[in-house]
Design goal:
Distance between the termini: 17 Å
Number of helices: 4
Largest sheet: none
CATH architecture: Up-down Bundle
Low-confidence stretches: none
Order of helices and strands: HHHH
CATH topology: de novo design (two linked rop proteins)
Oligomer: single chain
Helix content: over 70%
Structural class: mainly alpha
């Protein structure tokens, strides 16, 4: 396994970051009336996944703090899935786009859970 020097080296961060950027691009086409509700919320929660991973990394000398921030990240991941459900059901995204995003979020969720359950692999 290669040396992980930064949160940016974590595959979970890289996947979540790409997803947040994908969501940003996709939500540009959402209706204007959703600007301060669904659009804002899904962008915020998808970005919070990565920011909480970064904060967890900064606190990795304390296992409990590390796990706490990863738990926050996991909560944001679940929230993003719900916003994707709304986006699909409001017909702002098609089923193919929804399934592609959910499939990768499933991977992100599993990685976060693994990190939460095995913090000693990352903490000093």
């Amino acid at each position: 396994m290669s040396q992980i020097n930064s949160f940016r080296d974590l595959i979970v961060f890289q996947k979540a970051y790409k997803l947040a950027m994908d969501i940003f691009k996709i939500t540009k086409s959402f209706p204007k009336e959703e600007k301060y509700s669904l659009t804002d919320q899904i962008r915020r929660s998808s970005r919070s996944i990565t920011t909480n991973i970064a904060e967890a990394w900064a606190k990795k000398i304390y296992i409990k703090h590390f796990v706490s921030k990863l738990s926050d990240s996991l909560g944001e991941e679940y929230e993003t899935e719900v916003w994707l459900d709304y986006s699909r059901d409001c017909e702002y995204i098609n089923m193919e786009t929804y399934e592609k995003l959910i499939t990768v979020y499933d991977e992100v969720r599993k990685m976060l859970i693994s990190m939460i359950n095995n913090p000693e692999k990352f903490c000093k």
